[in-house]
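ok so i was messing around last nite and threw this chain in just to see what happens. nothing serious, just curious
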Amino acid sequence: MVVVSGDSNAAYLMDTADVPPAFDPVYLGSGVSDVQFQTDDQGQLTIATVLDDGAMNLFDQNGKPTGQVLFSPDRTRKVDISGDNQDAYLYDTSDSPAFDPVYLNSQAVAVQFQSDEDGQLVVLILNQDGSTNSYDSSGTFIDSQPAPQSDPVPATDDQGDGSSTSSVGQGLGKSASFNSLKTGAISW
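result:
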C-alpha cells in the first residue's frame, strides 16, 4: 500500500499484509498528487507516483526507483528515463506522432524543458557526471555542456546567508521532479 500524507503530500510504500511488517516504510517522494499501480505480462508490479507538475516517478514493488516520465509544459512531448543505464527517450505525445521514440542519451538523471530565443521547445538532459545535453523538440542533438567547475563558482553568496550564486539549476526549484532529486527521493 502507498500512503500519501502531510502538507507536502509525502508518499510512503508500506507493508500492511504482514504483522509485523516485512519492511519499514519506504519514502517515495513529496509533492505526490496521485499513485498508480500497473502489473506487466510477467507479473512485475510498477508503482508510479504522479507529482504536482505532472511528472511521474516509477518504482518497483520494493520502492526501488526504476525510472521517470516527464512532460513538456504544453504536454506535446515526454521524456522517459529508465533502465539500468538510465536511458532517456523522447516521445511525441500527439494522437498522430510526427516521429517514433528517439533515444537521447544514457546516464540521464533529470530533464528540463525550456524555450529557446525563438520560442522553440528545447529538451535539457542533466547527466550523471553533471554535464548537460540539449535537443530540439524532435530529438535532434543541439549542444553539450561539461559539468561545471567547482572551484571558480562559489557555493554561497558573499553575505554568507547560504543562498546559491551558481547558475546551475536556476529555475528548477519549482519542479516537483527536480525537488525529488534534490531531497534524495530519487537515487540511481
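not much to say yet. The radius of gyration is 18 Å.
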